[in-house]
Model the fold of this input.
Amino acid sequence: MMTISEKVAYIKGLMEGMKLDESKDEIKLTQKIVEVLEDMALTIADLEDSVDLMGEQVDAVDEDLDALEGYVYDDDDECDDDCCCDEDVYEVKCPKCGNMIYVDGDILDEGSIDCPSCGEKLEFDVNFDEEEDGAEDK
Done:
């Protein structure tokens, strides 16, 4: 299948091969039309290249997003709950909007988080007793 640029070049070659009288107005008009077709073909080729490049970039971003989602949501098949299995996850209800937020120990250690739904600052004051785990220092 011929590209648009190839088709325009073919038409231009046909026109040049006909050895038309270039002094006639209709021939001058036809030459200008072919020039415009050449410009359009080049512009279309540039646009096709840009679309191909953007398609590749979108595919790369999609792959990165899939990897990030796998990391954030921990798509491990062995996990039985909606969170993750490797560490303790705590469910916190925002007092302002009622949204359920899942936080891990790192977030609790930071002491606060903004509710992703309403922006309310949720503060945590949690002290885990080592004695509960049976690790008592003597």
Summary: Strands lie at 89-93, 100-104, 112-114, 121-123. The longest strand covers residues 89-93. The helical segments are 4-17, 25-73, 105-110. The mean pLDDT is 83.
